[in-house]
Amino acid sequence: MIGLESHNDSSAVFFLAEEVVAKKKASAKKSVKKRAAKKSVKTSTVKKASKKASKKVAKKKATKKKAAKKSAKKATKKAAKKKAAKKKRK
User: Fold this and answer.
1) Domain residue spans in the chain?
2) pTM across the whole model
3) What is the 3-state composition of the chain as percent helix, strand, coil, each rounded to the nearest 5?
4) Nearest-5° angle of CA 44, CA 45, CA 49?
5) Where is the stretch described as Disordered (predicted)?
6) What are φ and ψ of residue 86, in 5° steps?
7) Can you give the pLDDT of all 90 residues of the chain as single tens digits?
């Protein structure tokens, strides 16, 4: 920092003020960067979580679909067997 020789030295006061402003700006920039970093981590975490959840839901849906298909196939087979048995009896 610049030392003041007299109280009326306005240029020195100006330089001091400029230095203070520069320091404040730098610290503000740092905090903004920190905040942005935190935000990006948070959003990426949220994205990962939602992606995982959607995958889980998709898997569940696929399993349900598969089960439904299987049961439908089974029911069709059973009905066909019943029909064949009925025909045999006649």
Assistant:
1) 10-90
2) 0.38
3) 90, 0, 10
4) 115
5) 26-90
6) -65, -40
7) 455 555 556 666 667 778 888 888 888 888 888 888 888 888 888 888 888 889 999 999 999 999 999 999 999 999 999 989 888 887
| Tally of residues, the chain | 90
| Three-state helix/strand/coil letters over 41-73 | HHHHHHHHHHHHHHHHHHHHHHHHHHHHHHHHH
- CA–CA distances in Å: residue 30 to residues 1, 19, 74, 80: 22, 17, 66, 74
Scanning the structure block, which residue is given the tokens 């020789």? Answer: 5
Tokens 């700006």, located at residue: 25
User: Is the distance from CB of 2 to CB of 16 less than 8 angstroms?
Assistant: yes
